[in-house]
Design brief:
By secondary structure, this protein is mostly helical. The chain is built from 13 helices and 2 strands. The chain binds fe (ii) ion (2 copies).
Length: 246
């Protein structure tokens, strides 16, 4: 797929395209609410963006999992997920754990941060074993709770991120307690063990080293992610076209 087509080949060419930010990304932030202002800017020759954004790498028509890593994940999450999976692999963990590590923060990487474990689990559920999706969902809650039996402590990074007095909400505590009693507990717990931020020190890990493993544990739809008519296809399309007005 040619990633360097002229912008005339993009939809709405010839128009000035306005990007309406999603409310979930701007509510409560310093970003001003520009919805009314952008509506006021509509005039002949100006439209709200729909479809491929020339400012983003163009996705292939039938995107596969690693296309999202290469073209949509934020830089930090891209490195975080690859490094986490590599560490699990180097430690000799079984493939489903490595794949869970590779996927665990896919939501905050390319879709939404809030409740990222739940969103991420939903995104991948049709394509992976139930245990992998379960581990992705529950790593979110288990991150807040130590398990000395496997050497997992409350993360230093969370003290930095959320403050030393942060207390997770009741639904997170309940989810962690349920997870601790579940037969797949250790799968989610292992994800938290390799869920370490390597902001400065991460070696570059190439995503293609996981290609064969993905082939064994992630059922890529033949129509491409976003276009298979699954109950979560819209989530992948949202990652492909994050700037669509509607
Ligand atoms: Fe996470
Ligand atoms: Fe993570």
């Amino acid at each position: 797929m040619d990633q360097h087509r002229p912008t005339g080949d993009f939809p709405q060419s010839g128009y000035q395209r306005l990007v309406l930010p999603s409310a979930v990304a701007t509510n409560g932030t310093a970003a001003p609410d520009i919805e009314s202002e952008l509506f006021a800017q509509l005039k002949p020759g100006t439209v709200f963006m729909m479809g491929d954004n020339p400012a983003l790498p163009r996705m292939p028509p039938k995107p596969r999992l690693l296309d999202f890593y290469k073209s949509r994940l934020t830089d930090l999450t891209y490195r975080h997920l690859l490094t986490s999976a590599k560490r699990a692999m180097d430690a000799g963990q079984e493939e489903k754990i490595v794949v869970a590590c590779l996927l665990h923060d896919i939501s905050n990487g390319c879709l939404i941060r809030t409740d990222h474990g739940y969103w991420g689990a939903q995104m991948i559920a049709p394509y992976v074993d139930e245990e992998i999706a379960w581990a992705v969902q529950h790593h979110q809650a288990l991150r807040y709770f130590a398990d000395e039996s496997v050497g997992y402590r409350y993360p230093e990074s969370y003290v930095k991120f959320f403050g030393k007095d942060y207390v997770p909400p009741d639904y997170i505590r309940a989810a962690a307690e349920n997870a601790q009693r579940h037969r797949w507990y250790m799968s989610a717990r292992l994800v938290t063990l390799y869920d370490i931020y390597f902001f400065d020190t991460a070696e570059a890990v190439q995503p293609d080293i996981f290609q064969d493993m993905i082939g064994r544990h992630f059922r890529e739809p033949k129509e491409g992610l976003g276009f298979d008519g699954s109950s979560v296809a819209h989530m992948w399309r949202t990652a492909i076209w994050p700037n669509n007005a509607l």
